[in-house]
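Notes continue from the previous slide.

Worked example: a multi-chain complex. Inputs as given:
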Amino acid sequence: MRRSLDLHSADPASGTLSGSDQAYELHGVYFCYGNPLARDVRWVLSDMNVQVESGEILGIVGPNGSGKTSLVKLLAKLAVPHRGALSLFGRNLADLSQAEAARTVAFVPQDSAPAFSFTVAETVLMGRYPHRRQTRWSLGFGWEDRDDCAAAAQAMATMDIGHLASRAVTDLSGGERQRTMIARALAQAPRVLLLDEPTAFLDLQHQIEICSVLRRLSDEHDLTVVIVSHDLNLASQYCDRITMLKEGSVYATGTPSEVLSVETLRTVYGCEVLIDPHPESGLPRITLPRQGMPFRV
Amino acid sequence: MIPSAGHSTSSVSAVASPSMPSATMQTSGHMNGDDRPFQGAVLTPMRWWVIMGSLSVVALLLATVCLQLGTQYIGLGNLLGVLSSALFDQPSDDTMLNTTSVILLQVRLPRVFLGFLIGVCLASVGVALQALLRNPLADPYVLGVSSGAALGVALAVLFGIGTTMLAFSLLPVCGFLGGLVALLVVYRMAASYDRLPIHSVLLAGVILNAIFSALIMFITSIMEPNRSFGMMAWLMGSLTAPAYPALAALSVYLLFGLVLLFKQVRVLNVLALGEEPARSLGVDTERAKRVIFLVSALLTGAVVSVSGMIGFIGMIIPHAVRLVIGADHRLLLPASALVGGMFLMVADTIARTFFVPSEVPVGIMTALAGGPFFVYLLVWRKDRLG
């Protein structure tokens, strides 16, 4: 494992946190859309037990409709579990205000962008919203200060979009827009970054680039990253651990080598794939079967 | 314990600084050593003051021109003379100047000011609704909020509860209630989809407009003929010179709403990202929505009760202003407000001068300008609506 495990115990800031090794802890979490007391309630997530270690990259994978996005929404405090306990760095997430949570957790939803022609720099600066205090007489203007601009500039440099600063987000390509949204989340100066399908609209080069940046942020700055992804190969190469969901509960969790096996994928996805060790990293590599192969399930 | 702002600022430098030396150099090159790393890419207080200052100057100049024009042209010297004698309370013996003074102070000044005020409100509501619904075509008129307010006012007139008490009319309140009902219904209809698609919002507005118009027509047709004629003229959207106490009461009422709206400018920015991203940035979106809905209905209701249905200002003005100065609502809202005020002031001046001796309802002018613009946006600027 590339990450040095004693990183956070050396960090004085996290020393004050109780349970500082755990970014998130979910115990028996149930969640559904609609009325949880209905007789025919259909839990989207049921009996979830997930731990996210501080500073790790956790990949959440699973078939469509297995509850990946719902799980991330719970982590982002956009939804509240109906049963069970969900804590963020040792504190019950439900007890935190939305603004407090926003200073710790940043969330990049699937394919989001401003509806109007904001510039890239303006969009990234929106990430500073939770850090700007509004006074009674400022009429809600709250001009960004030097810290905000510096954080935004850094985030833009990290995502390599500095040259786009004055372009309108509505005129960007899908990849540029996605990098802008991730920069917006980084400008939030979070300790936890949640990403829903971050590489879905990116070309190969930018997929690799974003994953490397996330890897570096996690390694060097103890940023905890939770990625929802359909791309099992990317998850295998870049995640420390993978949690695989099936029908709203955790089917398997562990390192990529532990989770990604022919048997697991057969059970969870219902299809046959080839898995061999990656020639460089030795981590599992998933290959689609030869064309015309019968479906052996 | 969860880290507070103090911890977060320290982690800003941690997340960003040591990692990418080349990129860091690049950005600090732009910085000029001060706190403006994005020259021209973001709104600065400096730029805000420059733009708002120049717009205010233009507004004053336009107001002067609008005061001069009318059935009787008033020269600049006379105009300033009357205004200063009114301000400093010097009675004058010149009968010519006295006639001018009556025209100017009793008719034109209140009417021009009313036009400006109503334009300000309609454009501001347009900006707020567009941000909230993430829809550049939103406008109180298009969404049926205006006709909801008009229905409220019409009902009040029908049942005779629109009586004036101490210069405070109950009509704005009835307009407010009607507008609020319309707004809630439109939002409900449109939000039954997950992401408030642009066209379903418009469709909801169309349906609501049809229903409210039918009800208003019904009310109009069962009134006595002379009252229904006044009703029709009011519905078309027209300005008449109000008495000063009524104008003052209206100004206070509208100013209250505008201040509430201006407290939401940064929230409007973040809401443009969408409701969930806004919440994940710590915005209390439910509260913001409530405030914006209430204020929009408040302003629209008051405006409609005074001037009838003046359409499209809330859509054209924010859109045009956004194209020129950018999307940041901290500037977009006040700038659109000023431009909207100027627009209606000028449109009303045209309405009352170009077709002398008759006067065209200003609502017809704005609809003639706004309708084609709406079609243009819908057909040729699809890319902008995505």
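Summary box: Residues 47-380 of chain B form a domain with the ABC transporter involved in vitamin B12 uptake, BtuC fold (CATH 1.10.3470.10). Chain B touches chain A through 67 residues (CB under 8 Å).
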